[in-house]
Amino acid sequence: MIICSAVTDLRFGDCAKGKVVYNLAKNYDIVLRHCGSQNAGHTIFHNNIKHVTHIIPTGIFWNKTSIIGPQCMLNVPALFDEIKELEKLNIDVVSNLKIDYRAHIITDKHLKEDSNEIRIGTTRRGVGQCATDKFARIGTRAEDIPLLKQFLIDCTDYFYSQTQDEKTILCEGAQGYYLTIDSKYYPYVTSADVTLGSVIASGIPPQSIKSIYGVAKAYDTYVGTRKFQPTGAIFNKIADCGHEYGATTGRRRQCNWLNLDELIQAALVSGTTHIIINKIDVLELVGVYKLIHNKDIKEFSSIQDFKDFITHQIKTAFTNRQFSYPETIFSDNPYTI
After folding, report:
1. 63's torsion region: left (phi>0), alpha (psi -120 to 50) or beta?
2. Which residues are registered as beta bridge partners of 254?
3. Same domain? 313 vs 180
């Protein structure tokens, strides 16, 4: 029997999913990275020390079975570099890390091809090029790499090998809803499905998914060449207060007010049972509380009014569609939910 929860980003990534997964993972048997690649960067604080993971699931910090799923793409040297960094912390990676044999490999060729990309503003980690080979059916998979043999599993077989045993699985997403390959913002997207569809494609039946944690921030950020940040010093102030730099590339993120309409749409489509809105403290630092609703900018006199409005709009949107509305949680702490 499988009991599953999933953590997914409702915006453009960079919404502190890593923190959420880290705080939940200790309660699960398995953490499954169900999408993404080393272009992701999940920031967590373990024993009060900051760490950034890229492809290895966050469950590794809790000595949990940590699986890189079949929808993921990875570069072998980068994977072993990440393993070495974690082993310096006395974390037992080798005993707990598993890789589905179907995960695709980012090769040196892919990295070279991506090294001068400027049109989309990618992380230049070879993800698009790897995806191209995958769908052309000429790609290299984890099963083709001898160095990975000790880690290889078939997720489906692994999950169902002992059908009488209850397995609790936490699915860790990457990037965000509006960066998935079929997003309305195409072509300014990632090169894979990073929605909850990749959970099912990893061997998790839909009926076993009991909780879905949708993650956002109190404001929006985006990294890439698409024009995203409006004119105004306030947005640079938000970026400075929020330390808005990419965990993987170090690039400064563009900032804007939270688009509540888009957040609600993503939450509805994703079937969220909990919505976690991080970095409330950043807006408190800048002292301005605004968001986008019905395509207009709405301003509030206090952070409490800001939070109350968001909660009400989410509840209304869900109940109008006869859905159970999610619990909305506002976080002002980089360490905990």
Report:
1. left
2. 222
3. no
Region 181-188: mean pLDDT is 96
The model scores a pTM over 0.90:
yes
Residue 42 is a catalytic residue:
yes
DSSP letters of 256-317? EEEEHHHHHHHHHHHT-SEEEEE-HHHHHHHT-EEEEETTEEEEESSHHHHHHHHHHHHHHH
Q: Which of 9, 14, 114, 133 is catalytic?
A: 14
Does residue 14 have an active-site annotation?
Answer: yes
22 and 88 co-located in one domain: yes
CB atoms within 10 A of CB 194: 27
Q: Which of 215, 244, 265 is the last residue of a domain?
A: 215
Catalytic residue among 9, 29, 34, 42: 42
SS3 content of the chain, % helix, strand, coil (to 5): 35, 25, 40
CB neighbour burial string for 258-272, b if at least 16 within 10 angstroms, e if fewer: bbbbbbbbbbbebbb
Tens of pLDDT along 85-135?
999 999 999 999 999 999 999 999 999 988 887 787 777 888 999 999 999
